[in-house]
Specification:
This protein has 428 residues and is of the alpha/beta class. The protein folds into two domains: 126 residues, Enolase-like, domain 1; 267 residues, TIM Barrel (Alpha-Beta Barrel), CATH 3.20.20.120. It contains 13 helices and 15 strands. The strands form three sheets. The chain has an eight-stranded mixed barrel with strand order 5-6-7-11-12-13-14-15, surrounded by seven helices. It has a four-stranded antiparallel β-sheet with strand order 3-2-1-4. Helix 1 packs across helix 2, helix 7 runs parallel beside helix 8 and helix 9 runs parallel beside helix 11. The protein starts with a strand and ends in a 13-residue tail after the last helix. The mean pLDDT is 96. The structure holds 2-phosphoglyceric acid and magnesium ion (MG). The site of 2-phosphoglyceric acid has 13 residues, from loops.
Length: 428
């Protein structure tokens, strides 16, 4: 049983220099902890609302002073001094206090900050590593068997770069590596080789995008796949065996009327399914996220049928870590993997419910950062505690990304756990 003595909150700046919030929580026992909250750019329309001030004279309306006021005002007033037996009691209190379906009253940023800060303070109080405490929140007594496998941004496009290509990320996954340490070293080698190849082929210094992925001025998506495979081979690795590719198509963000705009082509959904199917056959792609738009429910089952023998079919904007949307995807056979981002739903307990539901359907879970991140590293503990198959944090540059990889390395040293096999590692 833990009671909250006090909450603090302040506005801080994220990796894009945009405001976000940091929340501190002190328990009656004196245990104290703070967390900072991430923020997306390619957001799904069903995400919980991130409260911004809307004052155009300050950070172009992106200020978070209202969210700060909500933490130290109404939230603190409602929960200070109350004994909470469990995280879900605190989260239910927050949700009831907000009273809306999309957290638009208090703000999902304010609520998640409190939810996470409380969890971290309770872990301190119980003298538990945060990943162990998170594991217990998902399932009491849950056994930790493996570490999540890093998926690391190599190339960026879409809303995270200058729009050179429509799709948002091409990521590397070291599916043949047996430790996190090895996976990071292999991926780093390929990333550096890719930067060299961009210099050679395009005479360009490879500039990096919001999550540290390289953003060369290529003419086509296929040119990026070729570059990725060459970078793997030139680094001395076997594409598909040692390292493979994951895509975040982020298709919600290039919908145009009835279709999808890729370069000068306007593709109907069936054409996009076929285009992605061709990519998956031709290149060593083992995961496809948001291959279709968030509301294109009619066509997700055909995407699933086309690619699921080779790649996991991952929903981000489609699902927004929302149990109701996950249930619909299970019933319609639309996906078999959940991209889990706690700020899409706004409290730890609701995200845990989403994770349990995905597990009950036999899905894989990829725990993900946002494109706007901070130096905080709780995400790595969450990915371990909830036994995600993969952790998606952006690239292997930039401190807000490395904070998570470094934490995962520390957990690996501490636990000695193996890395979980890639869900479809039978692919040849
Ligand atoms: C995504 C995420 C992370 P954002 O689409 O998967 O890459 O981006 O945080 O901008 O939604
Ligand atoms: Mg995504």
């Amino acid at each position: 049983m833990s009671a909250i003595r006090s909450l603090t909150a302040q506005e801080i700046l994220d990796s894009r220099g945009r405001p976000t919030i940091e929340v501190g929580c002190t328990l009656e026992s004196g245990a104290t902890a703070s967390v900072s909250v991430p923020s997306g750019a390619s957001t799904g329309s069903a995400e919980a609302l991130e409260l911004r001030d809307g004052d155009p004279r300050r950070y172009r309306g992106l200020g978070c002073r209202a969210a700060v006021r909500n933490v130290v005002g109404p939230i603190a007033a409602a929960i200070a001094g109350v004994e909470f037996d469990a995280q879900r009691e605190l989260d239910a209190t927050l949700t009831a206090l907000d009273g809306t379906s999309n957290k638009s009253n208090l703000g999902a940023n304010a609520m998640l900050g409190v939810s996470l800060a409380f969890a971290r303070a309770v872990a301190v109080e119980r003298d538990l590593p945060l990943y162990r405490h998170f594991a217990g929140l998902l399932e009491p007594g849950m056994e930790l068997r493996a570490l999540p496998r890093p998926t690391i941004n190599l190339f960026s496009g879409g809303k995270h770069a200058g729009g050179q290509v429509e799709i948002q990320d091409i990521l590397l996954v070291a599916n043949g590596a047996s430790t996190v340490d090895e996976a990071l070293a292999w991926t780093w080698a390929v990333y550096q080789t890719a930067a060299d190849l961009i210099q050679e082929r395009y005479g360009e210094r490879a500039l990096s995008a919001d999550e540290g992925g390289l953003a060369p001025s290529v003419q086509s998506i296929e040119a990026l796949f070729e570059l990725a495979v060459d970078a793997i081979t030139d680094s001395g690795f076997r594409p598909g065996t040692d390292l493979s590719l994951c895509l975040d198509v982020a298709a919600s963000h290039f919908v145009s009327g009835e279709g999808y705009r890729i370069g000068s082509d306007l593709l109907f959904p069936a054409d996009l399914v076929e285009r992605i199917g061709g990519w998956v056959e031709q290149y060593p792609i083992v995961s496809v996220e948001d291959g279709l738009a968030e509301d294109d429910w009619a066509n997700w089952p055909s995407l699933f049928a086309r690619i699921s023998n080779r790649a996991i079919v991952l929903g981000d904007d489609l699902l927004t870590t929302n149990p109701a949307r996950i249930q619909r995807a299970i019933e319609t056979g639309s996906a078999n993997a959940l991209l889990l981002k706690v700020n899409q739903i706004g409290t730890l307990s609701e995200a845990a419910e989403a994770a349990r539901l995905a597990r009950s359907a036999g899905w894989a879970i990829v725990v993900s950062a946002r494109s706007g991140e901070t130096e905080d590293n709780w995400l790595s503990d969450l990915a371990v505690g909830w036994q995600g198959e993969a952790l998606k944090v952006g690239s292997i540059t930039r401190s807000e990304r490395l904070a998570k990889w470094n934490r995962l390395l520390a957990i690996e040293r501490e636990t000695g756990l193996p890395v979980t096999p890639w869900p479809n590692s039978t692919r040849s």
